[in-house]
Amino acid sequence: MVDGIWKPIIWKDEMSVGVAQLDDDHKGLISILNRLGEALHDDGDTRAALTLGFRALSQFMRVHFAREEHAMRAADYPGLAGHHPQHVDFIEEMTDMAARFEAGSDGDLLEDLVLYLRDWLINHIMVEDMAYKPFLSGNSDAHRAARDFSAANR
């Protein structure tokens, strides 16, 4: 945030990893982040925003990470072994923040969450995920794996 004012993140073509389902997942993350960012300046219930935010992130990101890694395996992406721990770290960070929330620590938690997600989005998607783009974007096996992925079948 600049000067404490939330500026929504707008999807741009340069954010694309070249696989439609993964791009759609990233757009979904941006949507969740923007809703949480807007909640920073609403006079609404911070607990309600955090409850919805943690629920959405928990479900959404687990499915996204599994889909992304499934596509990476299908493309024989050599960086998967280094990429997976970043997903684990993200889930652990969300689990820690959710535990703080459940323990009654609202304080700056919404702002902490928004800042973490924004930084993670910029660093992970725009740097780490872009590293797999050349391996996945033109790979029909990766596209098929992402398209046909089902969280129920993993």
UniProtKB/TrEMBL annotation:
PROSITE patterns: HEMERYTHRINS
InterPro entries: Haemerythrin_Fe_BS, Hemerythrin, Hemerythrin-like, Hemerythrin-like_sf, Hemerythrin_metal-bd
Keyword list, A-Z: Iron, Metal-binding, Oxygen transport, Transport
Superkingdom to which the source organism belongs: Bacteria
Domain Hemerythrin-like: 18-136
Molecular function via GO: metal ion binding; oxygen carrier activity
Cross-referenced PANTHER family: BACTERIOHEMERYTHRIN
The protein's name: Hemerythrin-like domain-containing protein
Source organism: Hwanghaeella grinnelliae
